[in-house]
Amino acid sequence: MTFQQKLEKIIKKNNSLVCVGLDTNASKIKSNQFSFNKSIIDATCDLVCSYKLNTAFYESIGHIGVKALKDTCDYLKNKYPKIPIIIDAKRADIGNTNNVYVQFVFTYLGTDEVTVH
């Protein structure tokens, strides 16, 4: 199923055009990023058409943040597979570098879309 098809189905099912940004700033929350994200996801899953995660908020704190990003994506894929996941990474580079960005976003994280510039 393409991203567009997946998006159209969830828009219709949830009657929503809301995309929730999980741009979770670890310095501003009391729990870890994944737990915080999970609570937001569970509270909004019937109100959204997608979730968007900005990688900078996760990458900026190193491997713990990347793990929280991966755990959040895995949770969404496993518990709410009908809701598209968008990675906000604003990636753009030469072909070889783009290939490894693609591997991280689509293979490792298993998401549906990525922002570019």
From TrEMBL:
A GO molecular-function annotation: orotidine-5'-phosphate decarboxylase activity
Enzyme Commission number: 4.1.1.23
Any one Pfam family match given in the protein's UniProt record, by short name: OMPdecase
Top-level taxon of the source organism: Bacteria
Pathway: Pyrimidine metabolism; UMP biosynthesis via de novo pathway; UMP from orotate: step 2/2
Family in the record: Belongs to the OMP decarboxylase family. Type 2 subfamily.
The protein's name in its UniProt record: Orotidine 5'-phosphate decarboxylase
Source organism (scientific name): Candidatus Roizmanbacteria bacterium CG23_combo_of_CG06-09_8_20_14_all_35_49
